[in-house]
Every structure is written in structure tokens, then in C-alpha cells.
Design brief:
The protein has 5 helices and 11 strands. The protein has 216 residues and is α/β, with parallel strands linked by helices. The strands form 2 sheets. Strands 1, 2, 3, 4, 5, 6, 7, 8 and 9 form a 9-stranded mixed sheet that branches. Strands 10-11 form a two-stranded antiparallel sheet.
Length: 216
């Protein structure tokens, strides 16, 4: 992926895509009924290859991450994909930053491929990891999300669904430190939360990159 393709500049704000890994997905599961013959070049060896990562938002002296990739995983998700991550911190270092430089983490939602670097233990599909996290990867950062998203996965019907946040690797380290934001909140100069609820229904998602603005 070229630098020109993975960075967007809006005035004094830059948004950079940091790759973490990729997945070889079953195209018929991802987009059932689609005639792939009408889309030559879209598949690689019969798979739909999609990347995972995070968006680095830089404005002034602020360094914000939107989502945290899939983490140090190399696993099969039956019927869906083989996924492999682990590159996010290297991608961050290529931008001249370390985890200690990140001041804010914003989660759009808590599906497995958006939370992988929450702690120093990668998430699993069913929370069956043998290791206990020692702390948050971005220990100096505020961790933000919409309150309905958190409630959905911790006390609502999502607490019993596969594909949500690992209770050990993700929810445990976030409990007590998570802060809630809502539509219209400003989390940095020119960076505003926009409610795009629905992907983890009935969640409310926070997506700062969609509303990053710079006042010149």
C-alpha cells in the first residue's frame, strides 16, 4: 500500500491507515449471491483478501487511534476466513510513534477485528485465552466509545454472542477506564464524534475519521 493511498490530509489534520494484518475471506460468506465472475481481479486464489488496521489521526500535538486492528492472531474463523495480524505497532513505529505517544483510543465498535491491541494479550473468539493481560497496550491514552456499544457487549444480548470482545483480553482491562462519548462530542481540535449506529446493533459507534476537520 503506497503512502499516497493510505494518508489523507485535511488542513492541519492527517489521517493515516496503519495496517495490522489481513484475512483470506470466503467470498460467498462475505457477499452471498454476488456473481464474482462479473468482478474479475477481486479475488486472490478464490479468496476475498481484506486488511485489518487502525486509523492514526494527528492534529497539533494530539495522536489518536481509531480502532486497534486484530492483534497477534493467526487463526481460522470457521466458514469465514483465515486471519493473521500483529503488525500494528510496527506500522505505528514507521510513523515515528510508540504506544506511549498515543493520547486517545476511540473504538468504533467492539468486533474482534477492531480491538486486537487493547491489551498485551490478543483476543480470542470465545475468551478462551490462557494468559491474563498485564495492562493496556496504550496505557497513557484515554479509551473512548459510545455507551450503548459497551452496554451491549457487557450487560446486553451481545454478552452471549460470538465475535464480540474477549472478556479477558479486552473487557477486563477496559473496565474502570473506559469513557463514553456521544454524537457531537469534540475529542480533539477539529475532531468530532459522529453517531453511525447499527453495525453491532443496537450499538452507537464513534467514528472520528469521518468528521476530522481542521480550522485554518
Amino acid at each position: 500500500m503506497s503512502q499516497a493511498a493510505d494518508r489523507l490530509t485535511l488542513g492541519a489534520t492527517t489521517i493515516t491507515y496503519l495496517i495490522d494484518g489481513s484475512g483470506d475471506h470466503n467470498p460467498d460468506t462475505m457477499l452471498p449471491g454476488l456473481d464474482w465472475a462479473a468482478h474479475p481481479g477481486s479475488l486472490t486464489h478464490g479468496h476475498l483478501v481484506l486488511t485489518f488496521g487502525a486509523f492514526l489521526v494527528r492534529v497539533g500535538d494530539r495522536n489518536i487511534l481509531a480502532d486497534l486492528g486484530i492483534g497477534l492472531l493467526d487463526m481460522d474463523i470457521p466458514g469465514l476466513a483465515h486471519v493473521k495480524g500483529g503488525r500494528l505497532l510496527k506500522s505505528l513505529a514507521e510513523q515515528g510513534l510508540s504506544p506511549e505517544d498515543i493520547d486517545t483510543v476511540v473504538y468504533t465498535h467492539l468486533h474482534l477485528d477492531h480491538i486486537g491491541w487493547t491489551s498485551d494479550v490478543p483476543p480470542t473468539l470465545h475468551g478462551q485465552g490462557a494468559n491474563t493481560p498485564s495492562g493496556l497496550t496504550f496505557s497513557r491514552a484515554r479509551h473512548l466509545m459510545a455507551e450503548p456499544e459497551w452496554r451491549h457487549w457487557t450487560t446486553g444480548e451481545g454478552a452471549h454472542q460470538m465475535g464480540g470482545p474477549d472478556p479477558v483480553a479486552t473487557l477486563g482491562p477496559l473496565a474502570g477506564v473506559i469513557e463514553f462519548v456521544q454524537d457531537g462530542d469534540t475529542i480533539a481540535p477539529g475532531v468530532t464524534v459522529e453517531d453511525t449506529a447499527g453495525h453491532t446493533w443496537p450499538s452507537s459507534s464513534a467514528t472520528p475519521p469521518a468528521r476530522a476537520r481542521s480550522r485554518c
